[in-house]
Design a protein that fits this description.
Elements (H helix, E strand, L loop, with lengths): L2 H6 L3 H6 L13 E3 L34 E2 H5 L6 E4 L8 E8 L14 H6 L11 H13 L6 E8 L13 E5 L2 H13 L8 H17 L6 E8 L16 H17 L5 E7 L7 H10 L16 E2 L6 H15 L3 E4 L13 E6 L6 E3 L13 E4 L5 E5 H9 L4 E6 L8
Parallel strand pairs: 4-5, 4-7, 7-8, 8-9
Antiparallel strand pairs: 1-3, 2-12, 3-15, 5-6, 10-14, 11-12, 11-15, 13-14
Helix pairs in contact: 5-6, 5-10, 7-8, 8-9
């Protein structure tokens, strides 16, 4: 291990004394100047000119494909300054969960009850096994535990009258994710008995209206998200004579008009979609909603049904739902770092690297990822528009926020490491 890496990695005692990144104050961290004496540089291959060398597989190199150990950057002799940088407090975000409580949500999930059998007879086959509704409720509450109280959460159900009823005011209106709000959500979810049809379009449109009106009133500053959870598709009986007639026309209106309008500049409501077993026939539509709603992964294809969180292919619904909803929750959080200012002039944005040291793992360099927006598929870090902050994106942000013993260091002077 080089002395520079040893300097970067804190001792066990020092690490224990430090606050976790999510709790550290926003003041600038400690600056560690690099002494004049440098170890033998690590050559940078011509194929990676302008970037740090990418090494995987060997001991002391990468932690896995697409990752590189901090040694590759720090032992190269290029680093001029290393600064411990705390995460800034996450920006406020607002998440409205719009949940299908139609009769089919009362069924046990496959393989105990197939989706076809559930449609024919929407009831629980085995009372001892959790229903789709119970598994969804449990996964949602688990995801809420991972969100800070700066996030506002609420829930709206469809239908609300055991037929085709929808509403503009959520069953649990948006409020900060405090223990009291989570208690309200627990009580609300527990009181629900699945029944009725699937007015998916009306429920989603009214969710957008609610979010937009609250944002215009200035009561929900920050990012806005609708999380649509359904085990089916729009019911023919639940159309709106004033806007559309029949399930196909109403669905088309939602996908091609209301969802893009909600995601557009000036409104900025992004839509995540979770398809529970029973939604197999709606895969394309649900993926179109997610993609047009700004949350589909880069390169996803609605025709393949891979733009939304598709639970219909999962064997363990409960565990899969928890993973998906926790990932969605993570994507609504921000992980921002103040960009250190070098002592000898302006920072060279091409000579910056971010090193993440997990609580119980070795340090690794996080890649810069500009192939997509931070909240639409990027996984690594990016500069903000003003180039004075660094934002961690995707699973990288989730991992850093969730590791209470971790630390983040920004290294100046080495060519930026990023995806090929």
């Amino acid at each position: 291990m080089s002395w520079r890496l040893a300097m970067l990695l804190c001792s066990a005692a020092a690490c224990a004394a430090e606050s976790p990144p999510s709790l550290q104050p926003s003041a600038a961290g400690m600056t560690v100047p690099t002494p004049a004496l440098n170890p033998t540089p690590v050559p940078v291959p011509a194929a990676t000119a302008g970037r740090a060398a990418r090494t995987t597989g060997a001991a002391g190199a990468g932690d896995g494909p697409g990752q590189v150990n901090a040694e590759v950057i720090l032992a190269s002799g290029c680093a001029s300054e290393t600064e411990l940088v705390p995460l800034l407090p996450p920006s406020p975000s607002n998440i409205l969960f719009v949940i299908d409580r139609s009769g089919s949500m009362a069924c046990n999930p496959p393989p105990l009850t197939s989706s076809d059998a559930c449609e024919r007879d929407p009831k629980r086959s085995d009372p001892k096994v959790s229903s789709k509704w119970e598994l969804t409720s449990q996964a949602l509450l688990s995801a809420l535990e991972t969100l800070p109280d700066t996030t506002s959460v609420g829930v709206s159900y469809f239908s609300n009258d055991d037929a085709c009823g929808v509403q503009s005011i959520p069953n649990v209106p948006l409020s900060r994710n405090t223990p009291a709000q989570r208690s309200s959500l627990v009580s609300s979810l527990a009181a629900i008995k699945p029944n009725g049809s699937t007015p998916l379009v009306g429920a989603t449109v009214l969710a957008y209206r609610y979010m937009h009106e609250k944002a215009l009133a200035g009561t929900i500053p920050g990012g806005q998200y609708v999380v649509l959870i359904t085990d089916g598709q729009q019911s023919d009986a639940c159309d709106d004579p004033l806007r559309c007639k029949g399930a196909d026309a109403c669905t088309d209106l939602l996908v091609n008009h209301d969802v893009p309008k909600a995601a557009a500049d000036g409104v900025d409501i992004r839509t995540f979609v979770v398809g529970v077993p029973g939604s197999e026939a709606a895969r394309t539509v649900l993926s179109e909603i997610a993609k047009n709603g700004g949350t589909g992964a880069p390169g996803c294809d609605p025709k393949l049904g891979n733009c939304h969180f598709d639970m219909t292919r999962e064997t363990e619904l409960g565990a899969a739902l928890q993973r998906s909803l926790q990932k969605i929750a993570g994507q609504t959080l921000t992980c921002d770092l103040a960009l250190p200012k070098p002592k000898d002039g302006p920072v060279n944005l091409k000579l910056v690297n971010v090193v993440f040291t997990p609580n119980q793992a070795r340090a690794r360099v996080l890649p810069q990822d500009n192939h997509a927006p931070c909240d639409a598929g990027a996984d690594g870090w990016q500069y903000n528009a003003a180039n004075d902050q660094i934002r961690l994106c995707g699973d990288t942000c989730t991992a850093v926020r969730g590791d209470r013993g971790a630390r983040i260091d920004v290294v100046l002077g080495c060519p930026v490491f990023g995806p090929d």
